[in-house]
Specification:
Shape: globular
Number of helices: 23
Radius of gyration: 25 Å
Structural class: mainly alpha
Distance between the termini: 57 Å
Number of strands: 5
Oligomer: single chain
Strand order of the largest sheet: 2-1-3-5-4
Largest sheet: 5 strands, mixed
């Protein structure tokens, strides 16, 4: 029934569905897909007679619990901190933390709040893509629906939907900001709401500073040509500056720059040469999502004309191209499914589909003589898109379940062990601190230094990291022995293995296949 409704968009009958009903249909389809994701998660947690440590809903990344820990401390009056009273952000999404904290006014299950928020943001993605395709880029109804379906079935974006991460919100805000900018540029009228959306975007992901900068430069160029007023540009700049100031005022470990700190959080930093592997992986992600669309012009054999990029929409291709290039110099590691480039994926739809529209295939679906032929051609196109995209979507749904299983078997298993065996006097140092900090309600010493700034400066000498952790009274180390072999080689003679937490393959969301819990020799922990 759902698919037949989608196919009916291709008919020539006027007002078969209003715009609202069209967008609502995408939301209904999205809810159905989320239901499948949660079912796969449930199955994956129960397979092989594994222990299910998930109390409410599982998540595929430990970073979700870092967000929740910050939100929890914010609600408790401890400020923006992971280990109160230390004020420092290893969390570079302050808006996401604030939204989770608001949800915490109603429930203590902040991980559930995070999952609901990310799901809601994702559910709005396909309707937003449809809306922009139809009303900003002026695709006909068939191709606007195709754009929405591609967004809905994009596997990598799909697994971010119930992840509890800010990725879907960052992508949605990117879409909204670009829509506002293009519409405003058509009338040469700067709107304050564009600055507000851009401000919210940079408070969600620091990479979106780039989008704000491109928009501001575009308006500045138009100002120099007297196409916009100084007053409106000043208002735009002031609003944006308020958001910049608020985000940049957060306590930081390194150099007072949230953009730099974001790269530090991911174990990178400013590079003098671009990270070519990161660029190649970005290209692979785009190709993986849109290969079936890209081959259509080749199958069609004839491209009537290459679409022209007009100045009013230039912000879109500039952002799509420049973001991964900039990230290759300020490169996050390729991790977490490549989520740092996800905001460009919906935008690629608007760049790729015009090439398809300029082929014989488009002519066959839009210039036929009768409504029945039009309906049939459009139906075949929609069927082809769904069939070609489903294998990738199913693959990533499976990966989502496996990622949740990884976190369950290591991070949440470590939490269960700590709660069952340690006293409040035991002090823990760990490589991954999110779930441990959130669920045990303890201050955790971060051996990477990201929430323990006094350790960050010692990273070049792992002997000093060990000594600093011991000086703080650490008697329990929860680490991956192969993640930082230098640390383990130095400390191994002083450690006694207590428990190993292996994951069920494949390895997706953990740093290694085995998380090890050690106690310091001669410093026993108190069993409950």
């Amino acid at each position: 029934m759902l698919f037949r409704c989608l196919l009916s968009f291709t008919s020539n009958r006027p007002n078969v569905f209003s715009r609202f009903k069209t967008e609502l249909l995408f939301i209904v389809a999205g809810v159905a897909m989320l239901t499948v994701l949660f079912a796969v998660q449930s199955y994956d947690l129960s397979r092989h007679d594994g222990t299910n440590n998930v109390t409410t809903v599982g998540v595929p990344l430990d970073d979700v619990y870092i967000h929740c820990r910050y939100a929890e401390n914010l609600l408790a009056g401890h400020g923006y901190s992971f280990n109160p009273p230390t004020q420092v952000t290893a969390d570079t999404s302050p808006l996401w933390v604030l939204l989770i904290a608001v949800g915490g006014l109603f429930t203590s299950h902040l991980e559930v709040v995070a999952v609901i928020l990310s799901s809601l943001a994702w559910l709005m993605m396909a309707p937003a893509v449809y809306r922009i395709a139809k009303y900003v880029f002026h695709f006909d109804t068939l191709w606007a629906v195709v754009a929405g379906i591609i967004s809905l079935l994009s596997g990598r974006m799909l697994i971010m939907a119930p992840s509890g991460m800010e990725t879907a919100l960052a992508s949605l805000l990117t879409l909204i900001a670009i829509e506002i900018h293009i519409r405003s540029r058509e009338t040469f009228r700067i709107r304050i709401r564009e600055a507000v959306v851009l401000g919210l975007a940079i408070a969600t992901r620091p990479e979106l500073y780039l989008l704000a900068a491109i928009a501001a430069i575009d308006w500045l160029i138009l100002l120099s040509k007297n196409n916009v007023s100084i007053k409106s540009f000043a208002s735009f700049s002031i609003v944006l500056a308020v958001f910049f100031g608020a985000v940049l005022s957060l306590p930081l470990i390194e150099r007072g720059s949230l953009s730099y700190h974001s790269s530090v959080v991911q174990g990178a930093g400013i590079r003098f040469l671009p990270d070519m592997y990161y660029l190649l992986r970005t290209f692979f992600i785009v190709l993986e999502n849109f290969w079936f669309v890209l081959i259509i012009p080749f199958l069609s054999r004839t491209i009537n004309a290459f679409p022209k990029i007009r100045s009013r929409v230039a912000i879109l291709p500039i952002f799509v191209i420049v973001l991964p290039i900039l990230q290759s110099f300020l490169a996050p590691q390729y991790r977490h499914f490549g989520r740092y480039v996800f905001p460009i994926l919906p935008l690629c739809i608007f760049m790729i589909l015009p090439f398809v529209k300029n082929t014989k295939l488009y002519s066959r679906t839009s210039e036929v003589n009768t409504s029945s032929e039009h309906h049939r051609a459009g139906s075949l196109l929609l069927v082809a898109i769904v069939v070609l995209m489903l294998p990738s979507s199913i693959r990533w749904v499976t990966k989502y379940g496996e990622a949740v299983s990884n976190i369950n078997d290591q991070h949440l298993a470590a939490v269960a062990w700590v709660n069952a065996n340690l006293s409040p006097n035991d002090i823990i140092a760990a490589d991954d601190v999110g779930a441990l900090g959130f669920f045990t309600k303890r201050n955790i010493i971060d051996l990477t230094g990201l929430v323990s700034p006094e350790i960050y400066s010692l990273q070049q000498n792992q002997q000093l990291v060990w000594k600093e952790a011991r000086n703080k009274g650490t008697n329990i180390f929860i680490i991956y022995t192969r993640l930082n072999p230098t640390f383990y080689q130095y400390a191994s003679d002083s450690l006694e293995l207590v428990k190993e937490l292996p994951i069920r393959q494949p390895l997706l969301s953990s740093a290694d296949t085995v998380m090890s819990i050690f106690k310091v020799k001669g410093a026993p922990y108190a069993a409950r």
